[in-house]
Specification:
Mean pLDDT: 89
Order of helices and strands: HEEHHEEHEEEHEHHHEEEHEHEEHEE
Distance between the termini: 28 Å
Structural class: alpha+beta
Low-confidence stretches: 1-16
Pfam families: DUF2066
Oligomer: single chain
Protein name: DUF2066 domain-containing protein
CATH class of the largest domain: Alpha Beta
Number of domains: 3
Organism: Thalassolituus maritimus
CATH architecture of the largest domain: 2-Layer Sandwich
Signal peptide: 1-18
Helix content: 25-40%
Number of strands: 16
Largest sheet: 6 strands, mixed
InterPro entries: DUF2066
Length: 339
């Protein structure tokens, strides 16, 4: 986990705001039938998917403790039901218990990424029989399949996303030729219109049986160039969403530390009402790396809190940067609560 200075964190937090991932702990997997054998296999597959989604990285599938726990996946479920996909296929919808899974990942010393994650703007273009076109909500039916596959792939990896409208203003700010040529100044300018935390920009070369993506991820202090190839739109979207998740997880997931005292005493100002008081406690207590929050003292608009953490406070604060709820005051050495 790469640590940022408090100054950088403060600057980033002034302009960023994260999105809360919905249904992070619900996974739908294909299942052949409703037999016990098929159900157990599907639950195991759902268990793997939810672990990858929570960690942000497939590295967790190599973790011995987590691999050995897969046969006990049913112990971490809160519900399951059968559904039909739009194509008529049978699905098993499995919902897992967040606290139990978070405790499991902590015991395994595996990365853990909370529900607050960067929302990405997808600035994508693809070549078709009619020429190059952009992928977005108002675009022709030629890109409908791409929209669906990207939406599914981003959801599967727990990544919030949005497409641009590609209205006249977008088309003037970012002509298709500029996006296809990956002209970064034009792309940056077009992305400023949207309330996203970053963007994924690139071009897709589509030919029968061969699909390739060339582009880059730009989010906060992350700039990551990517070049991927696949045999279908589904597999290309899956590979791309996976590459994005892996990179963002390096920055925002926290890794539990073992064998050391991870307690921290912090002072937070700007807590001027009971609503603020409740919000601060709820916010910190809800973080995946915070085991417990104890109020040490309350003086006017200032709270002093003792935190029991699974990792260092620096890593916890680093992962909170997108939420823009707690800012560091370099002069006073304390923190300020943002309503």
């Amino acid at each position: 986990m790469r640590l940022l200075t408090f100054f950088t964190l403060l600057c980033c937090s002034l302009v960023a705001s994260a999105a809360t991932v919905k249904n992070l702990y619900n996974v739908k997997v294909p299942v052949e039938d409703q037999t016990e054998e098929a159900r157990i296999d599907a639950i195991g597959g759902a268990f793997q998917r939810v672990l990858v989604r929570m960690a942000g990285t497939r590295v967790v599938l190599d973790n011995t403790l987590l691999v050995n726990e897969q046969p006990n996946a049913q112990n971490y479920m809160s519900s399951l039901r059968y559904e039909r996909s739009e194509e008529g296929g049978l699905l098993l919808s499995v919902t897992f218990m967040p606290d139990q899974l978070q405790a499991l990942l902590e015991r395994a010393s595996a990365p853990l990424w909370g529900e607050s994650r960067p929302r990405l703007l997808l600035l994508l273009a693809v070549n078709t029989a009619d020429g190059r076109i952009t992928i977005g909500p108002e675009e022709p039916e030629d890109t409908e399949k791409w929209k669906e596959t990207f939406a599914t792939a981003m959801h599967d990896r727990g990544l919030p996303w949005m497409f641009p409208s590609w209205d006249l203003e977008d088309q003037m700010a970012l002509p298709i030729a500029s996006l296809w040529g990956l002209f970064e100044d034009d792309i940056d300018s077009a992305a400023e219109r949207y309330s996203s935390d970053g963007y994924l920009a690139g071009r897709i070369m589509a030919t029968p049986g061969a699909y390739s993506f060339t582009g880059y991820l730009n989010q906060g202090d992350i700039y990551h160039a990517m070049s991927l190839q696949a045999e279908s739109p589904d597999s290309l979207s899956t590979e791309l969403a996976g590459a994005v998740a892996e990179k963002l997880s390096e920055r925002y997931a926290v890794i539990p530390l073992t064998g050391i005292d991870n307690s921290e005493l912090i002072r937070i100002s700007g807590v001027s009402s009971f609503a603020d008081y409740h919000a601060v406690i709820e916010y910190l207590d809800g973080h995946v790396a915070v085991r417990d929050v104890v109020v040490v003292s309350s003086d006017r608009d200032q709270l002093t809190l003792a935190l029991d953490l699974t990792t260092s406070w620096q890593q916890v604060f680093d992962s909170m940067v997108l939420d823009n709820r707690i800012l560091f005051n370099e002069e006073g050495g304390d923190y300020a609560w943002q309503r």
